[in-house]
Protein backbone atom coordinates (compact mmCIF):
# COMPACT_ATOMS: atom_id res chain seq x y z
CA UNK A 1 0.00 0.00 0.00
CA UNK A 2 2.80 2.44 0.93
CA UNK A 3 4.47 1.66 -2.41
CA UNK A 4 1.21 2.38 -4.27
CA UNK A 5 0.78 5.70 -2.49
CA UNK A 6 4.34 6.68 -3.24
CA UNK A 7 3.89 5.86 -6.93
CA UNK A 8 0.60 7.80 -7.03
CA UNK A 9 2.19 10.83 -5.42
CA UNK A 10 5.06 10.72 -7.88
CA UNK A 11 2.58 10.65 -10.74
CA UNK A 12 0.69 13.66 -9.35
CA UNK A 13 -2.47 11.64 -8.79
CA UNK A 14 -3.06 12.45 -5.11
CA UNK A 15 -5.51 15.26 -4.39
CA UNK A 16 -4.68 17.39 -1.32
CA UNK A 17 -7.23 17.33 1.48
CA UNK A 18 -9.68 20.23 1.57
CA UNK A 19 -9.40 22.62 4.52
CA UNK A 20 -12.02 22.24 7.23
CA UNK A 21 -15.03 24.49 6.85
CA UNK A 22 -16.39 26.63 9.69
CA UNK A 23 -19.50 25.29 11.34
CA UNK A 24 -22.69 26.81 9.91
CA UNK A 25 -23.84 29.81 11.93
CA UNK A 26 -20.56 30.24 13.79
CA UNK A 27 -19.75 33.78 14.93
CA UNK A 28 -16.90 35.72 13.41
CA UNK A 29 -13.95 36.47 15.64
CA UNK A 30 -11.62 39.44 15.51
CA UNK A 31 -9.63 39.14 12.26
CA UNK A 32 -5.87 38.78 12.57
CA UNK A 33 -3.55 40.45 10.06
CA UNK A 34 -1.87 38.10 7.59
CA UNK A 35 1.88 37.92 7.15
CA UNK A 36 1.58 40.32 4.18
CA UNK A 37 -0.67 42.82 5.99
CA UNK A 38 0.93 45.24 8.47
CA UNK A 39 -0.57 45.04 11.94
CA UNK A 40 -2.55 48.09 13.05
CA UNK A 41 -0.53 50.63 15.03
CA UNK A 42 -1.52 51.42 18.61
CA UNK A 43 -1.99 55.20 18.73
CA UNK A 44 -3.56 55.70 22.18
CA UNK A 45 -4.16 53.63 25.30
CA UNK A 46 -5.35 54.30 28.82
CA UNK A 47 -5.27 51.30 31.18
CA UNK A 48 -6.00 53.40 34.32
CA UNK A 49 -3.71 51.20 36.41
CA UNK A 50 -2.04 54.25 37.96
CA UNK A 51 -5.32 56.12 38.45
CA UNK A 52 -5.27 59.89 38.04
CA UNK A 53 -2.63 62.36 39.21
CA UNK A 54 -3.88 65.93 39.64
CA UNK A 55 -6.80 65.09 37.38
CA UNK A 56 -4.60 63.66 34.59
CA UNK A 57 -4.33 60.11 33.23
CA UNK A 58 -1.24 59.11 31.24
CA UNK A 59 -1.42 57.60 27.77
CA UNK A 60 0.43 54.28 28.10
CA UNK A 61 0.87 53.91 24.32
CA UNK A 62 3.70 56.45 24.45
CA UNK A 63 1.94 58.95 22.17
CA UNK A 64 1.42 61.51 24.91
CA UNK A 65 -2.37 61.87 24.71
CA UNK A 66 -3.02 62.69 28.35
CA UNK A 67 -6.61 62.48 29.54
CA UNK A 68 -8.06 65.25 31.71
CA UNK A 69 -10.85 64.56 34.20
CA UNK A 70 -13.79 66.95 33.93
CA UNK A 71 -16.86 67.19 36.14
CA UNK A 72 -20.08 69.15 36.52
CA UNK A 73 -22.65 69.55 39.29
CA UNK A 74 -20.44 67.90 41.92
CA UNK A 75 -19.76 64.85 39.78
CA UNK A 76 -16.88 62.62 40.85
CA UNK A 77 -15.04 60.05 38.74
CA UNK A 78 -13.49 57.37 40.96
CA UNK A 79 -10.41 55.29 40.21
CA UNK A 80 -10.19 51.97 42.03
CA UNK A 81 -8.06 48.89 41.31
CA UNK A 82 -7.26 50.03 37.79
CA UNK A 83 -10.85 50.75 36.75
CA UNK A 84 -12.94 53.90 36.36
CA UNK A 85 -16.35 54.47 37.95
CA UNK A 86 -18.52 57.26 36.56
CA UNK A 87 -21.16 59.18 38.54
CA UNK A 88 -24.43 57.34 39.21
CA UNK A 89 -27.66 57.88 37.31
CA UNK A 90 -29.42 61.06 38.38
CA UNK A 91 -32.33 60.41 40.73
CA UNK A 92 -35.84 61.41 39.69
CA UNK A 93 -36.65 64.97 40.66
CA UNK A 94 -33.07 65.89 41.56
CA UNK A 95 -32.12 69.53 41.04
CA UNK A 96 -28.47 68.63 40.40
CA UNK A 97 -27.24 65.71 38.29
CA UNK A 98 -23.57 64.92 39.04
CA UNK A 99 -21.72 64.22 35.79
CA UNK A 100 -18.18 63.39 34.77
CA UNK A 101 -16.15 62.64 31.67
CA UNK A 102 -12.54 62.39 30.53
CA UNK A 103 -11.08 64.30 27.61
CA UNK A 104 -8.00 63.98 25.37
CA UNK A 105 -6.93 66.74 22.97
CA UNK A 106 -7.36 66.49 19.23
CA UNK A 107 -4.63 64.45 17.54
CA UNK A 108 -3.84 63.47 13.95
CA UNK A 109 -3.66 59.85 15.11
CA UNK A 110 -7.33 60.01 16.13
CA UNK A 111 -8.39 61.34 12.72
CA UNK A 112 -8.18 58.25 10.50
CA UNK A 113 -9.59 59.76 7.32
CA UNK A 114 -10.44 56.76 5.10
CA UNK A 115 -7.91 54.43 6.75
CA UNK A 116 -8.73 51.37 8.83
CA UNK A 117 -9.37 52.27 12.45
CA UNK A 118 -10.31 50.49 15.69
CA UNK A 119 -11.49 51.85 19.02
CA UNK A 120 -12.08 49.71 22.07
CA UNK A 121 -13.04 49.71 25.75
CA UNK A 122 -13.93 47.28 28.51
CA UNK A 123 -17.24 48.04 30.20
CA UNK A 124 -19.27 46.79 33.13
CA UNK A 125 -22.78 48.19 33.46
CA UNK A 126 -26.31 47.22 34.45
CA UNK A 127 -29.58 48.09 32.74
CA UNK A 128 -30.49 50.18 35.79
CA UNK A 129 -27.47 52.38 35.00
CA UNK A 130 -28.82 53.23 31.55
CA UNK A 131 -30.82 56.44 31.74
CA UNK A 132 -30.77 56.72 27.94
CA UNK A 133 -28.18 56.08 25.25
CA UNK A 134 -24.77 56.02 26.93
CA UNK A 135 -21.71 57.42 25.16
CA UNK A 136 -18.54 55.51 25.98
CA UNK A 137 -16.15 57.02 23.41
CA UNK A 138 -16.78 59.89 21.04
CA UNK A 139 -14.69 62.13 18.80
CA UNK A 140 -16.63 64.63 16.74
CA UNK A 141 -20.24 65.78 16.80
CA UNK A 142 -23.04 64.45 14.63
CA UNK A 143 -24.15 66.96 12.00
CA UNK A 144 -20.96 68.99 12.39
CA UNK A 145 -17.94 67.70 10.49
CA UNK A 146 -17.39 63.98 11.05
CA UNK A 147 -17.49 61.55 13.95
CA UNK A 148 -16.57 58.15 15.34
CA UNK A 149 -18.32 56.88 18.44
CA UNK A 150 -19.05 53.90 20.70
CA UNK A 151 -22.29 53.90 22.67
CA UNK A 152 -24.81 51.65 24.40
CA UNK A 153 -28.45 51.61 23.32
CA UNK A 154 -30.97 52.99 25.81
CA UNK A 155 -33.45 50.11 25.65
CA UNK A 156 -31.35 46.98 26.03
CA UNK A 157 -27.73 48.01 26.49
CA UNK A 158 -26.50 46.66 23.17
CA UNK A 159 -23.20 48.08 21.96
CA UNK A 160 -23.29 50.36 18.93
CA UNK A 161 -20.51 51.72 16.72
CA UNK A 162 -21.24 54.94 14.84
CA UNK A 163 -19.41 56.86 12.10
CA UNK A 164 -20.28 59.98 10.13
CA UNK A 165 -18.16 61.20 7.23
CA UNK A 166 -16.97 64.70 6.44
CA UNK A 167 -19.56 66.64 4.47
CA UNK A 168 -22.39 64.20 5.18
CA UNK A 169 -25.19 64.10 7.74
CA UNK A 170 -25.66 60.34 7.33
CA UNK A 171 -24.77 58.29 10.42
CA UNK A 172 -23.81 54.66 9.87
CA UNK A 173 -24.47 52.41 12.87
CA UNK A 174 -23.32 48.84 13.53
CA UNK A 175 -25.56 47.40 16.25
CA UNK A 176 -24.66 44.41 18.38
CA UNK A 177 -27.11 41.53 18.58
CA UNK A 178 -26.25 40.96 22.25
CA UNK A 179 -26.51 43.16 25.33
CA UNK A 180 -23.57 44.05 27.55
CA UNK A 181 -25.74 45.50 30.36
CA UNK A 182 -25.53 42.44 32.62
CA UNK A 183 -23.08 43.59 35.35
CA UNK A 184 -20.27 41.53 33.79
CA UNK A 185 -17.07 42.86 32.22
CA UNK A 186 -17.19 42.90 28.41
CA UNK A 187 -14.69 44.06 25.82
CA UNK A 188 -16.37 46.13 23.11
CA UNK A 189 -14.54 47.27 20.04
CA UNK A 190 -15.49 49.01 16.83
CA UNK A 191 -13.66 48.40 13.57
CA UNK A 192 -13.84 50.51 10.43
CA UNK A 193 -12.39 48.96 7.28
CA UNK A 194 -12.71 50.26 3.72
CA UNK A 195 -16.40 49.56 3.20
CA UNK A 196 -17.50 48.05 6.51
CA UNK A 197 -18.16 49.11 10.09
CA UNK A 198 -18.33 46.24 12.59
CA UNK A 199 -18.99 45.88 16.31
CA UNK A 200 -17.33 43.15 18.38
CA UNK A 201 -18.22 41.96 21.88
CA UNK A 202 -15.59 39.88 23.66
CA UNK A 203 -13.70 39.51 20.35
CA UNK A 204 -16.70 38.06 18.50
CA UNK A 205 -18.31 40.05 15.71
CA UNK A 206 -21.90 40.82 16.68
CA UNK A 207 -23.01 43.27 14.01
CA UNK A 208 -21.93 45.20 10.94
CA UNK A 209 -23.09 47.72 8.37
CA UNK A 210 -21.78 48.76 4.96
CA UNK A 211 -20.22 52.22 4.59
CA UNK A 212 -18.85 54.14 1.58
CA UNK A 213 -15.15 53.62 0.89
CA UNK A 214 -14.90 57.40 0.55
CA UNK A 215 -16.22 58.07 4.07
CA UNK A 216 -13.55 60.22 5.72
CA UNK A 217 -13.35 60.95 9.45
CA UNK A 218 -11.34 64.01 10.42
CA UNK A 219 -12.27 66.79 12.83
CA UNK A 220 -10.72 69.12 15.40
CA UNK A 221 -12.86 67.94 18.32
CA UNK A 222 -11.33 66.37 21.43
CA UNK A 223 -11.87 62.72 22.29
CA UNK A 224 -14.37 62.39 25.13
CA UNK A 225 -14.86 59.32 27.27
CA UNK A 226 -17.99 58.80 29.37
CA UNK A 227 -20.15 61.44 27.72
CA UNK A 228 -20.27 63.91 24.81
CA UNK A 229 -20.54 67.12 26.86
CA UNK A 230 -22.27 68.59 29.93
CA UNK A 231 -25.47 69.74 28.27
CA UNK A 232 -28.70 69.15 30.16
CA UNK A 233 -29.66 66.13 28.03
CA UNK A 234 -26.19 64.66 27.50
CA UNK A 235 -25.95 60.89 26.97
CA UNK A 236 -23.71 60.10 29.94
CA UNK A 237 -22.23 56.70 30.78
CA UNK A 238 -22.77 55.62 34.40
CA UNK A 239 -20.98 52.27 34.64
CA UNK A 240 -17.40 51.01 35.09
CA UNK A 241 -14.71 51.35 32.43
CA UNK A 242 -11.24 49.96 31.76
CA UNK A 243 -8.58 49.58 29.05
CA UNK A 244 -9.50 52.14 26.40
CA UNK A 245 -7.41 52.14 23.22
CA UNK A 246 -7.32 53.10 19.55
CA UNK A 247 -5.45 51.49 16.65
CA UNK A 248 -4.81 52.96 13.20
CA UNK A 249 -4.12 51.12 9.95
From TrEMBL:
Q: Give the signal sequence positions.
A: 1-22
Alphabetically ordered keywords of this record: Signal
Q: Which SUPFAM superfamilies match?
A: Concanavalin A-like lectins/glucanases (SSF49899)
**Any Pfam family:** Laminin_G_3
What name does UniProt use for this protein? Concanavalin A-like lectin/glucanase superfamily protein
Amino acid sequence: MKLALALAAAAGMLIPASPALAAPGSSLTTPRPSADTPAPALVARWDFNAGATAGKIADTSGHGLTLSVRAADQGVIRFDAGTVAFPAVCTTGATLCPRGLMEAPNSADLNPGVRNFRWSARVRVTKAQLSGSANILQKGVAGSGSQWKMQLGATNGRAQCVVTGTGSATAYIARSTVSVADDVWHKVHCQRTSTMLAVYVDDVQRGQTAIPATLSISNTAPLRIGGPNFNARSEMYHGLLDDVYAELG
